[in-house]
Amino acid sequence: MELINYISLFPGASREKDRFMALAEAVLRQVLDLDALAAEVQPGFSFASAEGIQLDALAESIGIARGAGMTDETFRQLLLAKLERWTWDGTNEGVSGVLPEGVTQSDNGDGTVNVSPPGTDQGILPVPAGIGVI
User: Fold this and answer.
1) b or e along 15-46 (b: 16 or more beta carbons within 10 Å of the residue's beta carbon)?
2) Domain limits at 38?
3) Close Cβ partners of 121 (under 8 Å, ≥ 6 residues apart)
4) Longest distance between any two alpha carbons in the chain, whole Å
5) Has residue 130 got a pLDDT over 80?
6) Same-domain status, 13 and 63
7) What's the CA gap between 24 and 104, in Å, rounded?
8) Are residues 63 and 39 in the same domain?
């Protein structure tokens, strides 16, 4: 939102007072600058967009360390899968949201599911209970 939009919210009687409006504009300009700064900083604190050392720092905050030679994209998929696992509802239907893209799954009919990650080191997948990796 722009400064003029906020200024227009003041009642007419206030807008007639020059010193008051100058103070209001100064305060609102600082708030808008802080809002713009927060918007610029936010991507560095998002698992979906952080890169390099910032991604490592975010992962450390949830107790995960990057494996040797792991790319940012692979590490990001692992982190997002781990976060999804923490909110998983425990159903076989919800398994696809817990695992990275490209993983195939099959329902065993006994409350368990087998998954097969293509071209991925199976040791890095966060595998929930009741999920067998084949």
Assistant:
1) eeeeeeeeebeeebeeeeeeeeeeeeeeeeee
2) 3-44
3) 67
4) 75
5) no
6) no
7) 58
8) no
Per-residue model confidence as pLDDT tens digits over 79-110: 887 887 788 777 767 766 666 666 666 777 77
pLDDT, tens only, 18-58: 999 999 999 999 999 999 999 888 877 888 888 899 999 98
> Is residue 50 domain-shared with residue 102, that is, in the same domain?
yes
Task: Give the orientation angle of helix 72-86 with respect to helix 52-61, to 10 degrees.
Answer: 20
Q: Do both 66 and 54 map to the same domain?
A: yes
Range from 29-38, 59-68, 107-116 carrying the lowest mean pLDDT: 107-116
Please give the distance of CA 108 from its chain centroid, rounded to a whole number: 32
Q: Do 20 and 34 reside in the same domain of the chain?
A: yes
Question: Across 51-109, where does the E strand assignment appear?
Answer: 104-107
How many other C-beta atoms lie within 10 A of the C-beta of residue 127? Answer: 16
CA distance 30 to 91: 48
Identify each DSSP E strand in 1-134 by its residue range.
Answer: 104-107, 113-116, 131-133
pLDDT attached to residue 2:
86
The answer to whether 30 touches 23, Cβ cutoff 8 Å, is no
